[in-house]
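Marked as duplicate of an earlier ticket. Keeping the data here for the record.
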Amino acid sequence: MNDAETISLRQATAPDWPALWQIIEPVFRAGETYAISPDIQESSARQLWLDAPTATFIAENENGDALGTYYIKPNQAGGGSHVCNCGYIVAPQAQGMGIATRMCLHSQDEARRLGFHAMQYNLVVASNEGAVRLWQKLGFSIVGTLPDAFHHPELGLVDAHVMYKRL
């Protein structure tokens, strides 16, 4: 049995926020993968990740330790609301355990259950090669590349991809 099989995924609730913030905060502060201000206030991050999405999930091991999280929400309103958007973050100590794969597969099942027809990632930073590779392995296509669309704190301006998958 691999590590990802020993985790459970469940919908996150308000009491889960401290554990989610512990995972999310270092990623937002690093400013390398999300188009979110590294100075974001915790309350704004909570609104973005836990309160506003259709659903937010937490990945936990058998001891209840938080190992990752993702959200799902409509990518656009009105005529674009049949396409969802997700964001995923894996805790540093859980990297390489297959948790991102497990969360992405779970999110696709959840998206179908919620009635979404497709999933779109709006800004996959090209320098985040592991994520680009994983999303492609899981059936996402790069449908567009935005030149210099992301200001990476160390690499400067880098391209970003729009990735898409029909469900």
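See parent ticket for discussion. Strands lie at 8-11, 55-60, 66-74, 83-90, 118-125, 141-152, 156-166.
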